[in-house]
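ugh ok so i messed up the first submission bc i forgot one of the chains. this is the corrected input, ALL of the components this time, i swear. 285 residues overall. if the numbers dont match what u have on ur side tell me asap before i send this to the collaborators (the ones from the other lab, u know who)
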Amino acid sequence: MVCSAPGAGDEPVLPDALGNRFVVRLPARLSEIHRLISIIETFGQWNRVPDAIIYGANMAIDELVGNAVLHAEMPDEALILFAVDFEASCLRVKVAWPGRAFDPTQAPRPDLDAALEDRQVGGLGLYLVHAFAHKIEYSRESEMNVLFLERGYGDDKSPLAST
Amino acid sequence: MSDRLQYTRRRVDGASREFQVLELVGKIDSGNAHELESEITRLAAARVNLVVDCSGVLFVASSGMRAFIVGAQLSQRSKCVFRVAGLIPIVSDVFRVTGLHRIIDIRATVDDALDPIPGALV
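and heres the new structure output, hopefully the right one now
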């Protein structure tokens, strides 16, 4: 099943019966993030995914889109691909984006214990991506950055798997 | 401000000083966090005692947390108050895990953030 996200001002086309997986090709603009978050919430609620998992997935995806848009030097009409699967109490997300190679799995961990005046404002987002996922893998395929996330869930109350 | 995040600002007299309460409603994502950071930065530069009412905030991406860190840092330098109030449990949980509760003054409610008189009922 494929959702189309043709461009600004157009809403994604969703089928009448929601399944447990979808693919979205999103224009690479920060202004598009809210539409993707809404789709994930809708599919997550349909599939009875715990709210905490939906929340964590949206945090991770927001960070990955933001990084891609701001740092990947993508062409103006670039699309970011999302394939999301909510099967067998396991959320699997595949994100693919063109442009400069960037491996989010290698980002340094921020100092969460730093005093306010020493606290760095960056790095928190990728830390949250790692904290959300049980499994995270990056690869470079045909000049595309490809990231795979996996998070199993039961009755999770926290978005973060590792705390 | 994006229609996905709405905000209003009002002046409130606390027990001992004046506050500006910035009430946020909606979701803070990377599409609108920079606008929020700009607003918080503007208020901090004006040396305002600021309470950010997040009781209507359903989602805070890392870019939103960045805005709060920046607000706290600027307010610390200008010796003004910066408090965040009313975080819903799931947001509060993420703030705690990322250590933000140690560097940002977080209160349960806006009333708690407005310098309540010790022992007074609120």
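quick check: The longest strand of chain A covers residues 79-87. that seems consistent at least. The longest helix of chain A spans residues 51-71.
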